[in-house]
Amino acid sequence: MTREELPNLAESKLTALVVDDNFVNQSIHQKLLSRLGIQNDVVCNGKEAVDAHCSGRNYDLILMDMDMPIMNGTQATKRLREMGIESKIAGVTTRANEGEKKEFMEAGLNDFQEKPLTISKLLSILHKLDFYVQT
Amino acid sequence: MLGLGVDRLQADINRLLASLFHQGVLDEHFLQLQQLQDETSPNFVYDVINIYFDESEKLLRNLRLLLMDREFSDYKKIGLHLNQLVGSSSSIGARRVRNVCVAFRSASELSNRPGCLRGLEVVEHEYHYLKNMMHELFQLEQQRLLAAGVRYPI
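Predict the joint structure of the above. Result:
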């Protein structure tokens, strides 16, 4: 897919939160989102994601890593849903066995993708969660 | 004449990249990294690769410290460090580093200390090879940019 073919979602003013303890993945995920015109913030673990929401911040989409220190993605997703956060949450992880994936999904995910995240995987998430906009 | 310098350097860059892909050192995720570089972040590849180097060296140092400890038994910690290395290596397209990390992780899951020590040596070897190749690539890129910047007015 060429750069010109990438849909620009700037018109929709979507916002996203990247939740990942890996700085390489943070950079790449933020860039992928920015390339699609999605404003985004980043935090390093599930607790920071919960704290961000407790302080009043809200996002259309959360890209949630599974394995993180302090509070992992499964715990954070559960907590956010308990708080009544209705943002779309997509789990992203390098590896997960079926049991771990099931537990992560049941915590309240709307979608799940294996890392590395690519433009097409991100578009798939957006499309599945009805964020995709035809240009 | 100066244009030939730029062309020669670009050919060198292409040759180096082709070799790294052929050897399996890099995969298509490195191409994505290059595709994400644009006018808003013209040094994106360089910046992300340097973050990868910084983080990887911390993780490799920690792995060595853990395994050198005679009373070491925390294989779970080894696994956590390796998950990080596998994840970031996959994301930047460092296929061979990723694969040897996966093999190392298998040894840690079996609590196999000699296997872990061997695994660490292999990972360190592959990592340093990748780092040297990336430095060579960045040097060529820098030379190409400098050569392209030196132009006589038409």
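Chain B has six helices and no strands.
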